[in-house]
Structure formats: structure tokens, C-alpha cells
Amino acid sequence: MEIDSKDAKIIEILKKDSRMPIREIAKQTKIRPSTVHQRIQKLVENSAIEKFTIKLNNKAVGENFIVFMLVKGSTSEYIDSRILNNRHVKEIFGITGEYDLLVKLKFKDVEEFHNFILNFRKDKKEIQSTLTMVVTTNLKEDV
Prior knowledge:
Layout: H1 5-16, H2 22-29, H3 33-45, E1 65-73, H4 81-84, E2 89-94, E3 101-107, H5 110-123, E4 127-134
Antiparallel strand pairs: 1-3, 1-4, 2-3
Helix pairs in contact: 2-3
């Protein structure tokens, strides 16, 4: 699906506030409300918009300890539902280079992270190495 300038305007507004009423989006984009509604439906149907979600305040929800972890493994078999569904695992990317994966994790504190990493390495013998980087400040985080 090709995204035209009208779709792009609608998407930019929805990225800032996905709860914004269609009438307000129409007002800001100068597109008729019925057209805005149809375009949003088409963006969803064509998977340009996968889902509407929220942006949480990390500190308020007890996830202010953020870690990025590089993972190197002997096979790709170590990524299973226990990792994919773990509440601390927020994003996983397959990457090129020395490591296979980049994992974004969020925790309440360093102790919670410590317990996670010990279990992560112990349970997965296929993992050759990990490199963890603790976030010291959050300059920008989009949803």
C-alpha cells in the first residue's frame, strides 16, 4: 500500500494521540470526517496500522530500569515463547554483525534485572554470549 500525503498527515496525528476523535483529525488535516474514517480503516485493513496503543510513563509503571542486550547464539532455537512472552522483553530485533539479536528490556530495578539475566543465561545453553547496556537517560522513545 502506498502512503500518500493525506494518509501521512493522519498517521502523524494518530502517532501523537491515537484517541483523537475523527472530527478533530479532520479539522487538523482539512479532510472531511468521512474520508478520514475511510482512510484510517484502509490503513488498518492493509496493515499499515498494526494496532492502536498507548505510551506508558516508565517510572510510573515501575519499568524505569531499561537495558539493551546483544545476544549471540549457536542456533536461532533459543528464541522461544518463554522469551517472547516474558513481561520484561519489550522488543527483539534480528541484527547483523557479531551478535544475532538486540533485545530491549524493562525492569523495576537492578535486582529484578539481575534475577532475569541469571535465569536467561542458565536456561539457554545455546546462548554463547550476551552484552548488556544499561540506559542512563531516556532522550526519546516513540511507540
